[in-house]
Write a structure and sequence with these properties.
The chain has about 100 residues and is an all-alpha fold. Helices cover about 75% and strands about 0% of the residues. The chain has three helices and no strands.
Length: about 100
């Protein structure tokens, strides 16, 4: 019993738009980072689904997804290091407090 491709794409679209909503509306840098990760995971789902639909015998989509997860992990490590340094300087990780670090 195969699940239709549209179901995966609907789940992926929901994840992406939930991440976009969180990215736009949140003020805490950690929740913004989590929302960004949710959007990147939705893109990874699309890579795998499109690969299985267009080229069922090949693994390009899976390799793109593994590469994307590696880049996401590196991006998260750098972002958390930056957030920790901001917290040490400002004692807050709210986005509105970053204007003081402009100059």
């Amino acid at each position: 019993m195969d699940v239709p491709v549209e179901y995966y794409l609907i789940v992926s679209a929901f994840m992406f738009f939930a991440g976009m909503y969180g990215f736009i509306t949140r003020r805490n840098m950690l929740t913004i980072l989590i929302s960004l990760e949710l959007m990147l995971n939705a893109v990874d789902i699309n890579f795998v689904v499109i690969n299985r639909f267009l080229y069922p015998d090949q693994l390009e989509g899976f390799f793109f997804t593994l590469f994307g997860l590696g880049v996401t992990a590196a991006e998260t490590a750098v972002a958390i290091a930056i957030i920790i340094n901001i917290y040490r300087n400002l004692k807050s990780i709210e986005v509105k407090n970053l204007r003081g670090m402009r100059y």
